């Protein structure tokens, strides 16, 4: 099957493989860096050797993920030039700026102070070491901010103008790109996802220690801190997830419809809580979209605009074209697919002739590369199920944090509720792989849901790839898979070794 992929499909698979491996390591570093900063702050204020021991242990776990996440991230950036040169040319002036800032500012800051943080114990003052730890944490999350800003621009391109002479988009408003609602929501939602993931991992490892009847004080203190941190982060995660849904509804209606498996628009529509999609359903047939469905009345309307009577267009509406109004005097006109293609091709023709492009035509520039309506529809089933897995697992982690806070409320081994509930300890361990699945599902919704676009409405995947052979890309897919699998096995081996040794064995 892989050998039969065309260039665009092979390039997408390679990038998806690299990104998913990269995202295994990144969230833990985002969240664990902040947790380590809090832990060392408690050591600095209390002088307790217990908190120093706790900080140094989690710092070792952080270091392993930091190193391997860095390696996979560099490969991702190289792929923009090797496999996506047309994309890089089309948006390089915009996409390159955040990545350059990330490399110059955030990356160098986190790398420099990481060395002090990890190797500077008892070599620098306690205050300078604490500052280095927090600067590493800030640098790590700032690094994510610039990358997420670039990704958010791809979802909702703003602050740019197209230069016909160079055939490139050029930045005209840096702050519009950095501070767009899509960018802000994406940054806080993604980083707090990392915070939640790190909290679950800390709890899971400590649950294993308690079941093994070892590292008692270390585990209880770590669980208490991680559970409170995780619950607070979950509140922000839920809020930013909600604001992200509003932005998706406004700027990516096809993704919003795919998330819900919605083919025919509804006013005051219900949100599917649990459902099984009908695989025979297409945008242009009369099949029922669901084989089974339990909905939340008016939930979709509330998710879209926080109103009870919001109209949410479906996939078929977006293809055929639809006009609606949710606010008096504010009418939304969605042109049919065929009209968008016509306008997109007119924009491409103007570019080929060196003529100024009509701004109205340029809005649909990417549609000029599409042939059939089906090409504009993302994989509905993958987007729909990933969204629900993400939400359901997120709710599970909130319950885990609340249960852990309750179980560790009293002090003292004899009075503690946690050992009495082995199901909770086992649940904490089971949640570790589940939180990684949840995290990956979030990115699947984000990236698969916006297909076929690399830049929303302006550049499809098919027009973004480099002029290389598909066989070359397929060979590198195999090489990367072996490399990443080796790195993952090595990382897990080192982590399991450190966990088995415990905090008292450096």
Question: What does this entry look like structurally?
Answer:
With 506 residues, the protein is mainly alpha-helical. It contains 15 helices and ten strands. The chain has helices at residues 7-46, 49-82, 85-119, 126-155, 174-178, 181-211, 216-251, 253-260, 299-305, 315-320, 337-352, 359-362, 380-407, 422-448, 470-501; strands spanning 160-163, 168-171, 266-267, 271-277, 290-296, 311-312, 322-327, 330-334, 453-455, 459-460. The protein has a two-stranded antiparallel ribbon. Strand 9 and strand 10 form a beta hairpin. The longest helix has 40 residues, at 7-46. The protein is globular and about 70 Å long. The model has no long low-confidence stretch (mean pLDDT 89).
Main sheet record: 2 strands, antiparallel
**Number of E-state strands:** 10
Tell me the Rg in angstroms: 24 Å
Q: Point out poorly predicted stretches.
A: none
* Residues in helices, as a percent range: 55-70%
Order of helices and strands: HHHHEEHHHHEEEHEHEEHHHHEEH
**What shape does the CA trace take?**
globular
**Distance N terminus to C terminus?**
47 Å
Query: What is the helix tally?
Result: 15
